[in-house]
Specification:
The chain is an alpha/beta fold. It contains ten helices and eight strands. The strands form two sheets. Strands 1, 2, 3, 4, 5 and 6 form a six-stranded mixed sheet that branches.
Length: 263
């Protein structure tokens, strides 16, 4: 919310993928999502705004006003209010082989390349974040809420599957199954949302990537199901590890069956 105020009229130039998004998507979860204070912002460079000239010079102003600091220029840290916040700028640029890509017009910020998240840019959901009186006073604004573009269910799962495959972090595996199981439509609803997103995103989305990631949960004794179960137990879920492993395996099987039927 504070970064949206810093960004001013440029909030339509990125989509929020990570951070608090699972809280919005997985509303049927038995325990709160074990999230982080990372806010992953995905920038569209080129393909979705064909012919448009990008100017990200506003990022320099926002980062300076927010007292953000960085050692690598794509991951930025600051304290906003009472929270330590990390911003990560991501771009899915298939024909670029470097670790980062420039953000045209910006002197200080770049985006790191992460293969596969571009589908999250398609048909995002608009979410209003309330601005409390103390923040309105701090920023000298009168607005009661800011509106940001968040990845929808299908876009989030496609981006998260790509991250789970490339980064191999435990949190990505946990996030992927958490949202798959606990969105209002369950695993079948997740697969339906992904199928829809694949149709909308076209060539920028890889259906093989999410099939490969979800398939790793099919064995209840496998490592991916174990990561999900262990994190749920650590978060306070009263179900047993064995039950949570089984839930992940059944959910994965259902997801794959529904996705294949939608192809």
């Amino acid at each position: 919310m504070r970064f949206a105020l810093l960004a001013g009229g440029h909030t339509d130039e990125f989509v929020v993928i990570g951070g608090l998004n699972p809280e919005y998507l997985a509303t049927d979860a038995p325990v709160p999502h074990q999230g982080t204070t990372d806010v992953d912002l995905l920038f569209a460079i080129g393909w979705d705004l064909a012919g448009a000239e990008h100017d990200f010079s506003w990022l320099d102003v926002a980062l300076e006003k927010g007292d953000f600091t960085s050692e690598n220029r794509w991951r930025w840290n600051a304290t906003l209010g009472d929270a330590r916040v990390r911003l990560e700028f991501l771009a899915d640029v298939w024909d670029h082989t470097a670790d980062t890509v420039s953000l045209p017009g910006s002197r200080t910020a770049v985006a790191t390349k992460l293969a596969g998240p571009a589908a999250a840019l398609v048909d995002p959901e608009l979410r209003d974040l309330p601005v409390p009186p103390s923040v309105r006073a701090q920023f000298g604004v009168e607005t009661d809420a800011v509106t940001l573009r968040f990845a929808n269910l299908g876009g989030y799962l496609l981006a998260k599957a790509a991250a789970a495959q490339s980064r191999m972090l435990h949190k990505d595996k946990y996030d992927l199954m958490y949202v798959t199981l606990y969105n209002p439509g369950g695993a079948a609803g997740a697969a339906t949302a992904v199928a829809r997103q694949l149709g909308l995103a076209g060539d920028v989305a890889d259906p093989g990537a999410i099939r490969a990631a979800i398939a790793k949960f099919v064995e209840p004794d496998g490592a991916w199901a174990g990561v999900f179960a262990d994190t749920m137990v650590a978060t306070g879920d009263t179900a047993t590890e064995a039950q949570l492993r089984t839930d992940a395996a059944i959910g994965a099987q259902t997801f794959l069956e529904v996705l294949d039927a939608s192809a």
